[in-house]
Amino acid sequence: MTIQIAPSILSADFVNLERELKAISTADLVHVDVMDHHFVPNLTLGEPIVKRICEVSPIPVDAHLMIEDPDRWAPEFAKAGADSVTFHMGAAHAPVRLARQLHDMGTRACFAVRPAEPVEPIFDILDEFYMILIMTVEPGFGGQKFLDNQMNKVRRLRDEITRRGLKTKIQVDGGVSPSTAAIVAAAGADVLVAGSAVYGADDPAQAIASIRQEAEKAFRA
Ligand SMILES: O=C(CO)[C@@H](O)[C@H](O)COP(=O)(O)O
């Protein structure tokens, strides 16, 4: 199984996004945090900027929608060109219908779980999603402390995926760095989002390589 690294542009220089995207071209995906100041207490960027990011990004774009009413808005991010669109369990009204709509549009549908939310309710609808995102911080801001108490959730999800022979990916987002990468990979996560650890480093490519190396050594399928 391959580990994928997805730098979050939340910690990038928003005035120089094209340059910031080039700096992470050795990563597998770029994670774009869309926040609406309702579902989370922060406001970032919307569909017109994501569309432009999709046009210039050297790697696939993973749009993480931390917004209310994704049923209305997620298809707009698929139209903008995002390769994957993640919406939240606590926000979607009809998650299966929305996932099918996104897949019909040629976009990978992914489902996110906040720290206080259980993962088991997803088990029944696991095969509708390309990837499940387990948040390891409360969504809203970069640079927060990694919540290692979320690792039980990652382990239970990995066990369920393995038991059923599914290919669903497990993404972890929040506080991921070279020193926490092994913990999340050992629990069974195979897509690691890292914002401040990549863009806060002197050499983002080196930070990506370190996170990848630590995760690959520890990953359990
Ligand atoms: O979605 C979020 C925060 O809500 C994340 O993508 C963060 O942006 C990750 O930042 P670090 O914890 O890696 O600094």
Query: End-to-end span in angstroms?
Result: 7 Å
Tally of alpha and pi helices: 8
The percentage of residues in β strands lies in: 15-25%
CATH topology type: TIM Barrel
Poorly predicted spans: none
GO molecular function: D-ribulose-phosphate 3-epimerase activity; metal ion binding
Function: Catalyzes the reversible epimerization of D-ribulose 5-phosphate to D-xylulose 5-phosphate.
Binding site for a divalent metal cation: 31, 33, 64, 173
GO biological process, one term: pentose catabolic process
Q: Short summary of the structure?
A:
The protein contains eight helices and eight strands, in the order βαβαβαβαββαβαβαα. It has helices at 17-22, 47-56, 70-79, 95-104, 151-163, 181-187, 196-199, 204-218, and strands spanning 4-7, 30-35, 61-66, 84-88, 108-113, 131-135, 169-173, 191-194.
What can you see in these coordinates?
With 221 residues, this protein is α/β, with parallel strands linked by helices. The chain starts with a strand and ends with a helix. Strand 7, helix 6 and strand 8 form a beta-alpha-beta unit. The chain contains eight helices and eight strands, in the order βαβαβαβαββαβαβαα. It has an eight-stranded parallel sheet with strand order 1-8-7-6-5-4-3-2. The radius of gyration is 16 Å and the shape is globular. The longest helix is centred in the last third of the chain and has 15 residues. The protein has one domain: Alpha-Beta Barrel (TIM Barrel). Helix 3 packs parallel to helix 4. The site of 5-O-phosphono-D-xylulose has 22 residues, from strand 2, strand 8 and helix 7. GO terms for molecular function: D-ribulose-phosphate 3-epimerase activity; metal ion binding. Pfam families: Ribul_P_3_epim. Pathway: Carbohydrate degradation. Keywords: Carbohydrate metabolism, Cobalt, Isomerase, Manganese, Metal-binding, Zinc. Its cofactor is Zn(2+); a divalent metal cation; Mn(2+); Fe(2+).
